[in-house]
Amino acid sequence: MDGVPDGVPRVPQQRRPGPPSPSDPSATPERPGVSERPGAPAALRFSVLGPVRAWRGDEPVTTGSPQQRALLAALLLREGRTATAAELIDALWGEEPPSQALAAVRTYASRLRKVLDPDGEARRSGATPATAALVSESGGYAVRDLAEDALDLTVAQDLANEAEKARSAGDLGQARETLRRALALWDGETLAGVPGPYAEAQRVRLEEWRLQLVESRLDMDLEQGCHAEAVSELTALTAAHPLRERLRELLMLALYRSGRQAEALAVYADTRRLLADELGVDPRPGLSELQQRILRADPALAEPSSAPEPAAAPVRPAQLPATVPDFTGRSGFVRELGDILASAEGRVMAVSALAGIGGVGKTTLAVHVAHQARAAFPDGQLYVDLQGAGARAAEPETVLGSFLRALGTADSAIPDSLEERAALYRSVMAGRRVLVLLDNARDAAQVRPLLPGTDGCAALVTSRVRMLDLAGAHLIDLDVMSPDEALALFTKIVGEERVASERTAALDVVAACGFLPLAIRIAASRLAARRTWTVSVLAAKLADERRRLDELQAGDLAVKATFELGYGQLEPVQARAFRLLGLADGPDISLAAAAAVLDLPVDDTEDLLESLVDTSLLESAAPGRYRFHDLVRLYARACAERDELPPTERGAALSRLLDFYLASAAGVYAIERPGDRLVDHLEPTSYPGLRFGNRHAAQDWLYAEAMCLLACVRQAAGRPETLPRAIDMLWAAHDLSESGANSKEYEATAQALVGAARAQGLGRAEARALMTLVNVHHVGGRFERAEEEAERAIVLAQESDDLLPVCWARNARGIIALYQNRHDDGEEHLSRAIEHFRALGDRPGVASALCNLSRIHLATGRIQSAVALAQEGIDIYDAMGNALRGANARYALGLALTQSGELCGAADRLQEALEVFRDSRQRLWEGMSLFRLAEVDLAARRAARAAANAEMALTVLRGIGGEWRRGNVLTVLGRALSGIGQTGRAQVCWQEAAGIYEELGSPEATEVRALLSPVRAA
Questions:
Q1: What pLDDT does residue 616 have?
Q2: 12 to each of 95, 372, 460, how far by Cα in Å?
């Protein structure tokens, strides 16, 4: 940022002489320590960045009375220099020492010497790092020969120097991490509990240095795009240090870069008013200049500031796939593309677009050229498969999100819209030299937002279509290989010896393959795998069956012919696996899911899939995961439709996959929610799912398989025989809707299932599908729609005599009625929900409804009964070991205790809930728990802590929870900011909250408008 020192602050005064010794960056101990030699005495360690303490090895050493600790601190902070008795007396007592001050100093010194060197080792044989002790010299005292890392202050100084060097070298990531390690050495107030004027002066000095380090680290946070995270910390810091303008400046910048311009300007107004009232001065010029730049929407503020010297990128992605070892030919294209990439420096941007039919070698050529050009792009290489040939091409905003993460941008700093992500992407790329490889693009519209657009960067694009509308691109039409190149590739794969004796047959083979690289590779791989075949045998097969391969204008036909060649050479069990695996939707498939499709043991499935990988008909995406090239998948499905006998086996394979996912998702649900009866009311399955050893393993599986699971659900929606199971699987996996990571995909799938059930006239299935949609709308804050869907679900479920959706729909309508201030309706729904759950024997369901009923009682002033109901819910959950749902109950109890004035108990319960939600990846409830903790803090008059918690809630709830919940958090944040004197910023928060409520038609708008000043409200 302009006007901000680039270096890391050094500790004021008292810098120890000599260059600092570097600390080990791989590990920072809780307190400083030195290495111990085998057999050597345990090393002494000391701390002053907190209470004055000493250790010998891991054993604490008693440091005596406060005055004795004051003497030790004074000697440690002199870093080996001698302190005279007069200096020590002045340090301990100042201008009014006791009459026996000198005797007291000598007594303290004697006691310390005995504690630090109990055996007199230092006096007998000379001090060592382990036995360094207090020594007498020239009428004074000193602590000598300490190891370099024996004092925590020394370690902090060394780490600060390391951070300064890293920052000067442009390595902000290393500098930030090193400063975090330095700041972690503080353990409360410096020299805590130590009396005397010297200790007080040192406290002030070292606290000022600590704050400077914090400011420097926050400045680097902002430079690396961590704006949203920084807002919460800066809000708390400005509350604790209201007159510190540097913190105010950083807060303004963090808010502005988080899209909160009005709040940033309000911070300046609050600061100007505070400085005028307290000190009678105006803000310093740097702060005023920042305000003017925000008012002008200065584009330079939207991106990290530039250092005087070009800084190395904090993250250097290296995402290029491996180049093939047998790359052959294309020498003219390699030179042409290499020359274009080499000229990228000094040009706005170099873009080369390769077009050609599938299998012509576009990706292979682009990856090979990119690897050769890596040295010209020292700031990294980005790669993405845009899946343009498939039915679900990659969305540009999704790709931009992954690129920004790869470039070091924090998740919370990545905006939501395509336009904002593209702008941030270009800003992050500015000043860097990065190569971007955009593989398998659908069209120019998909590509444009992904182009860096800055000097020194370049993009390579591959696609099946010629991108004539991609402005400024160098277009290359990639044709099939020449006969010589094709034969050379075939020879490299098959082997020189086999081809040399049958050169004519080999030429016939590559000609029959249409000189298409992918076709040649597959044919050669099959021949290489069969040592008993000759090249002539393969040539004869191609001549007999595929005379049309020379007609290259039918590009897909040529590719299919090549696939047919590979498929025809598979063993029967391989061919069956190839056909059936191609039926499954999803980006890839796990080994366990593939075993379900094939109805084989996992070990046999792995052997079979690895054999298909060897044929190049299947790819290994990662250990235990497999995927098809999009064209190969289409061909595999065509083979299944043509060859799979009986035809019902296709449906049976997908049914087994659905069973596997449903049974596994039910297992996740059961392990997260012990005793919940939902799993007993799901559609039966004939194929087993996975068993999980613990809750974390279950969660890991669910989130790793989310996209495949949702794809399977959508695929099963089209068949009446599988639709009910698909709906139950989505219901069992409803954690995906609350995580924030898969919420949009989950919602789209739920909508599709409701439509499919309605179209097929399956009332029972529709009721259950509606319950998944009710949860989606509830999480998104769309309460009217949730109410409508829940009401219809009850009608349909009652008609089909399916009590479970009735229970949960009543429960949902009860909490929705609470949000809409329809308390009588809510109490009726929840009371009936409790009756229904009890009829089913569903104790966790009863507990859930009790906790929701607690909130109705709370809203209607029945505080004691609200506490009792929530506690009853906790008792049920705890008895069943249901930690996740128990967190929901503790959340409800925390609200009730807040209203009852038991703020300590409320904070404890909400903190317990927060930890479980965070551990369970429940972003919605993590954010809501932070919001409720902010309410508790406000009630306890801890405004600064309330502001910090509310800020964290806003960050966690970004993209999830809906606008109504955001309005609630903004309202509380405004109250907290007002409590710490940031009234201008509070007004901005209330204005935004009022706008949200008014747009939603929520009654809270009136309350928030009342908080605004008459001028702002007018």
A1: 64
A2: 25, 50, 52
Indicate the helix (H) or strand (E) that contains 475: strand 474-477
What is the Cα–Cα distance from 266 to 650, expressed in whole angstroms?
64
The most distant pair of C-alpha atoms in the chain lies apart, rounded to whole Å, by: 116
Q: What pLDDT, on the 0 to 100 scale, is given for residue 867?
A: 95
CA distances from 806 to 112, 757, 819, 835, 994 (A): 74, 17, 20, 11, 36
Report the residue count for the chain: 1018
pLDDT in tens, 407-434: 888 777 788 788 888 888 888 888 788 8
Cβ neighbours around 990 below 10 Å, total = 27
The rounded distance, in Å, linking the Cα atoms of 821 and 663 is 39
Candidates 664, 659, 750, 752; CA nearest to 704 is 664
The pLDDT of residue 19: 32
Name all contacts of 402-407 with Cβ < 8 Å and 24+ positions apart. Answer: 403/436, 403/450, 404/428, 406/315, 406/317, 406/319, 406/380, 406/382, 407/313, 407/315, 407/317, 407/380, 407/382
Q: Are 72 and 202 in contact (CB under 8 A)?
A: no
Task: Kindly give the parts of the chain with pLDDT less than 50.
Answer: 1-6, 15-39, 122-131, 306-313, 545-559, 1014-1018
Q: N- to C-terminal Cα distance for the chain?
A: 37
Q: Look at residue 643 and give its three-state secondary structure.
A: helix
Q: What is the pLDDT of residue 5?
A: 44
The pTM is what?
A: 0.64
Residue 89 has which token pair?
Answer: 């007396």
Three-state DSSP string of 292-337 = HHHHCCCHHHHCCCCCCCCCCCCCCCECCCCCCCCCCCCHHHHHHH
Residue-level pLDDT at 119: 63
350-355 and 474-477 strand pairing: parallel
- Distance separating alpha carbons of residues 254 and 484, to the nearest angstrom: 60
Cis? peptide before 646, omega within 30° of 0: yes
- 8 Å CB contact between 689 and 662: yes
Closest by CA to 483, choosing from 515, 452, 455, 439, is: 515
Q: pLDDT tens, 301-360? A: 876 654 433 333 456 888 888 877 778 888 788 888 888 887 766 555 677 888 766 677
Structure token pair of residue 53: 């303490």
Asked if 896 and 863 count as a contact pair (C-beta separation under 8 A), the reply is yes
- Helix axis angle for 1004-1011 and 962-979, nearest 10°, is 20
Quick one: tokens of 3? 């006007």
Q: For residue 737, what pLDDT is reported?
A: 83
Answer whether 976's CB lies under 8 Å from 946's CB: yes
Phi then psi dihedrals of residue 460, to 5 deg: -110, 130
Say how far apart CA 829 and CA 643 lie, in whole Å: 55
281-300 CB burial, b ≥16 within 10 A, e <16? eebeeebeebbebbeeeeee
- Radius of gyration over every alpha carbon of the chain, rounded to an integer in angstroms: 35
